[in-house]
Design goal:
The complex is a heterodimer of chains A (about 190) and B (about 260). With about 190 residues, chain A is mainly α. Chain A has one domain. With about 260 residues, chain B is mainly alpha-helical. Chain B is about 70% helix and about 0% strand. Chain B is built from 12 helices and 2 strands. Chain B has a two-stranded antiparallel sheet. Chain B starts with a helix and ends with a helix. Classes of the chains: A mainly alpha (about 190), B mainly alpha (about 260).
Chain lengths: ~190, ~260
């Protein structure tokens, strides 16, 4: 149990997926203008990464390892993720209109979110079991959600600030992200 | 020949994927902790990009339009696997340095972007040179960014101690501590912020200040997108599908009316 908590804290805060590993930077910079869209994106990412890391872990351990085809993992994972995202979109559209309206827009964006493939590969590289993979996936995605929601909150305030002309637009966003990354260094001191 | 060189020039200067189009930010920020890393990442991507452009251009007439993106992804993923296995066998140092960012070349939007915007429409030779040009542009940008960060953050260039190589300087700069933050994660974002701010100030062409439109399917403007492009694309597709269905329905009705009259 302690190990699982450590995985969650480690992947969500200490090694934050966006701010220290630079995975999923595009949606982090692109969808962080308003807090509610950022929350929607965060929710969709949590959902997709948790499910995809479970699926990829099962396929890797039950199909690729017994068949001795570990080297195919990149191809298999990207296809699984692409299909999963399509499938989730279809299911949501059919059964949960409310959830679809909240998350649907972000789903196609997630296929190209390198955090999804990154988590699947990290799980494999670290030889995580199914349970640990799911926990790691959830932790990583939660870290993404935390980062993007904080970022959106800050950006809403930056709108009203007097930013130097050259720094308007993306430079100030990148400076903000940089300061957030420094702040997240604080979590490295966490001892469990 | 001139056409081919023009593609290379275009990739390195006019449409530099990192400095002008601002594509593939994740590997750009993650691996540029030193000049060497940037160089290796750039060259690896160049190989994948040139090969994927070549193959996709060769297959452009046989890939059906509707499944082209999955087909491209499979081609790119296979190439990345090949490159990764080659690196593991012959250059294990590079493989260790870049680690997870090698398989992640698959989702680098430069590659899919060039496949969609260029290789799917142009001849094999031109596409190949376009890949080389874009790859070289990426390599040069990554090497410059990496060297800049390495110089400030560790005081070295390509692993060589700069301060030692100039004798007179050594004593004068002995007390100078490198700014370690530049080789850590926040330094990457800060470097990029400074770069884009300079581009804004000097009004240089760059996707971040809107002066350059890039030609990938979604526009590639990650900073301004908020997913709106996907929504509008989907609406357009739905409208198109409806129009087609409408057209088919009308045709069928007209056909029926005709046969009815004949009867």
């Amino acid at each position: 149990m302690k190990e699982l908590i450590m995985i969650i804290v480690g992947s969500a805060l200490v090694n934050n997926v966006v701010l220290s590993q630079f995975l999923g930077l595009c949606p982090f910079l692109g969808v962080s203008k308003k807090t509610n869209t950022a929350a929607g994106m965060g929710g969709a990412v949590i959902f997709v990464i948790t499910v995809s890391s479970a699926l990829c872990s099962i396929i890797y351990n039950q199909v690729l390892v017994p068949l001795n085809m570990k080297y195919l993992n990149t191809i298999v994972f990207i296809l699984v993720i692409a299909c999963l995202v399509q499938f989730v979109e279809l299911v949501l559209k059919k059964y949960s209109r409310a959830l679809y309206n909240a998350l649907g827009v972000y789903l196609p964006l997630i296929t190209t979110n390198c955090a999804v493939l990154g988590v699947a590969l990290i799980n494999v590289n670290k030889d995580y079991s199914l349970l640990k993979s799911v926990v790691n996936g959830f932790g990583t995605a939660a870290g993404f959600a935390i980062a993007i929601i904080i970022m959106a909150g800050i950006r809403e305030r930056i709108e009203f600030n007097d930013v130097p002309k050259a720094f308007k637009g993306s430079p100030i966003v990148l400076v903000t992200a940089s300061l957030m990354a420094i702040a997240f260094f604080g979590f490295a001191g966490l001892k469990l | 020949m001139k056409k081919y060189l023009e593609r290379v020039y275009n990739g390195v200067f006019k449409e530099n994927p990192t400095l002008v189009l601002m594509l593939g930010m994740c590997p750009t920020l993650a691996v540029t902790t030193s000049g060497n890393n940037g160089l290796y990442m750039g060259l690896t991507t160049t190989v994948v990009l040139a090969a994927s452009n070549f193959i996709i251009s060769a297959l452009r007439k046989s890939i059906p339009d509707k499944v082209r993106i999955p087909a491209y992804i499979v081609v790119v993923a296979s190439l990345v696997t090949v490159v990764q296995l080659l690196l593991e066998a012959y250059l294990p140092v590079v493989n260790e340095l870049l680690g997870i960012y090698i398989p992640l070349i698959v989702v680098n939007c430069i590659i899919l972007g060039r496949a969609e915007a260029y290789a799917a429409k142009n001849s094999i030779g031109l596409s190949f040179f376009d890949g080389i040009g874009m790859g070289l542009g990426f390599t040069i940008a990554l090497t410059i960014l990496g060297s800049f960060r390495e110089l400030l953050g560790a005081g070295t260039i390509f692993g060589l101690k700069l301060l030692d190589s100039v004798k007179g300087l050594t004593q004068a700069l002995d007390s100078v501590e490198p700014i370690t933050i530049f080789i850590l994660a926040p330094g990457a974002l800060l470097t990029m912020a400074i770069l884009t701010a300079i581009q804004n100030k000097l009004k240089l062409p760059s996707a971040t200040n809107g002066s350059v439109k890039n030609s990938i399917g979604c526009g590639g403007d990650c900073l301004q997108c908020h997913g709106s492009v996907c929504t509008s694309n989907r609406e357009q597709l739905a409208r198109k599908a409806e129009a087609v269905a409408d057209g088919a329905g009308k045709k069928a009705a007209a056909g029926k009316a005709k046969t009815g009259k004949e009867e």
